[in-house]
Structure formats: C-alpha cells, structure tokens
Amino acid sequence: MQITIHTDSDRPIYRQVADEIKVLIVGGTLAAGTVLPTVRQLAADLGVNMNTVATAYRELQNDGLIAIRHGSGAVVTSQRTAVSNQRDVQRALRGALTEMLLAGMRRADILRAVTDELHALTREKS
Amino acid sequence: MQITIHTDSDRPIYRQVADEIKVLIVGGTLAAGTVLPTVRQLAADLGVNMNTVATAYRELQNDGLIAIRHGSGAVVTSQRTAVSNQRDVQRALRGALTEMLLAGMRRADILRAVTDELHALTREKS
Amino acid sequence: MQITIHTDSDRPIYRQVADEIKVLIVGGTLAAGTVLPTVRQLAADLGVNMNTVATAYRELQNDGLIAIRHGSGAVVTSQRTAVSNQRDVQRALRGALTEMLLAGMRRADILRAVTDELHALTREKS
Amino acid sequence: MQITIHTDSDRPIYRQVADEIKVLIVGGTLAAGTVLPTVRQLAADLGVNMNTVATAYRELQNDGLIAIRHGSGAVVTSQRTAVSNQRDVQRALRGALTEMLLAGMRRADILRAVTDELHALTREKS
DNA sequence: GTGGTCTAGACCACG
DNA sequence: GTGGTCTAGACCACC
Asked: How many CB atoms lie within 10 A of CB A12?
C-alpha cells in the first residue's frame, strides 16, 4: 500500500492517512474484501505513532468503509462512491483557486498546476 | 457583509472568517477602498469574541489584502499588493483535489469543475 | 536559549520573541532540525503567558522558519523554505535607516555599520 | 517642510512625523531658532488629524528638540546630534539585515537596497 | 471609539 | 503532554 504523508503539512497526519485510503477505496483500487495492513505494521511503514494510524482506521470505520476485526486486521467493506459532499468540495476548490489567483497565476498556470498535482496525487496511489 | 460561520466545523472560526473575506475580495465583491466593519461590530454580528475577528483581520493584513489603521478601521487594499506563496497554494490545491477525489470525481469531472469555478470567480470580478 | 525581552519596550513581546529567534536562525546559532522549547516551557522561562509565545511561534511558522507539529513541539526548518516579502524588507530597512539617521550617523557611518553587521551575521552562520 | 508619511505602514503616523523632523534637526537642515509650522497647518498639509501632529510635537518637546510656545508655534531649540542610542540602532539594523537575508538577497543586493533607500529618505527631506 | 496586546483559564485535537 | 483555539476582560496606543 503506497501512502505518502507530509509531516510538514498542516493537515493532521491521521487525516492524511485516512484520506489517502479513502481515495483508494472510492477510486476502486481497493475493492471490497481487501485486507488492510494492521495498525502496527502500517505505523511502522509510515514511521508514525500507532495511535495516529488507529485514529485513521477509526475514521474509516465511522465512514462505513472498513470493518475492524479484533485481532485480524481491517477489511474493506464498502463500494461507496463518495465520502465527501458537494459543499465541502466547493469550499475547498474555491479556496484553492482564490489562493492561486492571489499568487498572480493566470488561467493557464492554474490549469497546469491542477493537472500536475492531480497527476502526482493519483500516481502516488497506484 | 455576507459571512456565515459554522461553529461545529473543524476549521477554526478565525480562518473561516478570513477565507470568506478573502474570496469576497478576490471575487471583486469587496473592491479596493471598501471599509470593513469594525472588529467589534463583526464580532457582535457573528456572535464570536472580538479577538477571534481580530485574528482573522491580522491574517488578512499579513497577506496584504487589507490595511488596518489604528483608530480608523480596516480597508481593502489593492489586490496588486497582495502576496501568496507557493506553500499556501500547494496546500490549498492538494486539499481541494483530495476533497474532489473523495467525492468520487474522476479526472474529467475535476477539470470541468475547476474551469467552471474559475470562470465563475473571475467573471464576478468584472 | 538566549532570549531577553523588555516588558517596558513599545515593541510587543511576541514580536520581540519572534525577532530574536529569527536572528538566531538566520545567524546559524539555531541550525535546521533544532528543537525549540515548548510553548509552555519558554513562556515559563520568560515569565509571560503561553499565548504570547504561541503567537510568536505562529509568526515564525508563517514565515516558514519553523515547523510546528501538533503534539511534538516545534523544529527549525531549512532556511531555504523560508520566505520574506518585499514589504517586510522595506519596512525593516526604512526603520533601521531612520534609527541610524536619528543617531546622527552620516552616510559613510551608515554604510560602514551595515557592512560590519552584515559581515558579523554571515560569519556566524558558517 | 517636505515630509512624507506612509499611512499603510505599521509605524504610527505621529512617530513618522516626529522621526522625519528629528532627522531634519539632527542632520542640521533645521537649525536652532527655526520656526516650525503650527500644528493646525502641518496637519492640513499632511492630511492627518490635528491630534496626530500634536502628539508628534509633544514627543519632540520631550526629546528637548523643540520648544512649544503657546499661541505662536514651535521653535527648534537644540543642536543635539543624536536622539537614538546604539542599542536601538543595532537591533533595528540586525533585524533589517536578517529580513533581507531571509528574502534571499545577496551582499550586493543588500548594499544596493541600503543606498537606494538611504538616498530616497534623505532626498525627501531636502 | 478604534484596533493591539496581554492575561488567565478553559476545552479540544493531536501524537 | 503538546500545541490550537476560543473566551472574557483588561489596559494601552492611536486617531
């Protein structure tokens, strides 16, 4: 499971972990029935605290995307196609565009940045 | 001033306020020279503490979007003096793209949403 | 950590703290990776409120000089990630020159002081 | 009396006014015995509040540089050659240089900026 | 009356 | 235990 976290970001690590896994599930890369690594193992892989991964898994469980089986890891349970609503999307998108416009970026710059970052994000998860 | 905040959101209130005003300025709704409500006034309107609004205003001032003059309120400055750095841009962009991926949007959907919103934002500015 | 503040000064305490740390970082006394004291610790040392130190740290974070990680303190980042904009530069420079003119220094005195101090600052860095 | 103030600066207007006059006196442009404009007139010239100019004059009086004569303006009284101490100078200079180094400016850039700004400051007052 | 700053204390998110 | 945020209230600088 290829996950990249940015410790220097202001987004909580547990959320980065959860979000990356969510994207994989929603995107179909992780099908229902797939077994996720144990909390302990993923924590070791990422070099983060076990609590952090546990929190991420708990969030995934709350979203109904995985089932945590005591002693035997977690399993992807859902085929949900969306875990974010339109309002959040619009707010985030508008904020990002505003930031880019403030940076003096032109339409072409913005579109290029979007495709680049999109490419980077989805490639990391392949 | 049309600002709505969500106390139950996980985004800090001061940031919600700052971001909303930022969008209004970049969108042109708040033109350069416009006088913002006083800290106390806006705090009363929103039902939050004075300091919370003051923090939001300070952030806008650091971004160069408004000028705060002791004893005489805050005014919107020219957008040309504003600055935004690459870190802020990347952070916002990455967050927005993640949000869209979580909504189950595919590459084409995302690009369309970006161009649409970009169009909407810049059109408002005229 | 050698920091001294002057409560009777007209410069805000949080800015004094931030500026002193900034000089230490740029001068190389605080190298990248160095862990700063916790907010509570430094506040206790200086005899000021926690929030005051937190404000100073936030300013340093906004400048990209330190990275604050929830639950695990603040560390000095590489100077290369730091940013400073033209406004800050001009403001500081104008203030310094005015101060020197008020001290009765003439053009030659000022230029010599600048080169001397510049030499001292960059030499410390090695 | 050629005085320039920057309302967008974070330095208080009254201090800008006071400092500019101080520089003129310390620099010898305004000799002892010279009569300053009335508070009312200078306020009108600068487009600022009368209180602001009055505060500036009061500071000059406290520094022993001028004498305020009730009803007949203010007169330069001193030939003091310095109204700033070495500690303030060093602090301001170090802060400005730190800011410029953070902005990525090289030695040559810094020296040029200093001479440029110095020229601008002293020319304004001729 | 305006914003700036600081304090004290509280609660929460994070690791 | 760490930092983040918010509140309430106070005092000060500024205009």
From this structure: 17
Give the DSSP letter string of C14-52.
HHHHHHHHHHHHHHTSS-TTPBPPPHHHHHHHHTS-HHH
Reduced 3-state DSSP string for chain A: CCCCCCCCCCCCHHHHHHHHHHHHHHCCCCCCCCEECCHHHHHHHHCCCHHHHHHHHHHHHHCCCEEECCCCCEEECCCCCCCCCHHHHHHHHHHHHHHHHHCCCCHHHHHHHHHHHHHHHHHHCC
Query: Letter for the amino acid at A115?
Result: T
Q: H or E stretch including A101?
A: helix A86-102
pLDDT-based confidence at B78, cuts 50/70/90? confident
Least confident of A75-89, B5-19, D18-32: A75-89
Confidence of residue A126 (pLDDT cuts 50, 70, 90): very low
Helix (H/G/I), strand (E/B), else coil: B65: coil
State the nucleotide closest to B57 in CA–C1' terms.
Answer: E3
Paired residues of C66 in beta bridges: C76
D125 — pLDDT class (breaks 50, 70, 90): very low
Confidence (pLDDT) at A123:
65
The b-or-e profile of B39-58 (16+ CB within 10 A means b, else e) is beebbeebebeeebbbbbbe
Residue A100 near residue B89, CB atoms below 8 Å: yes
Distance A57 CA to E3 C1' (A): 45
The Cα A16–Cα D91 span in angstroms is: 42
Mutate to test the interface with B, among D5, D8, D48, D49 (most CBs of B within 10 A): D8
Side-chain-side CA neighbours of residue A80 (13 Å): 19
Please report residues of D whose CB lies closer than 8 A to that of C104: 26, 81-82
CB contact under 8 A, A8 and C70: no
- How far apart CA C100 and CA B54 sit, in angstroms, is 33
According to DSSP H, which parts of B4-85 are helical? 13-27, 39-46, 50-62
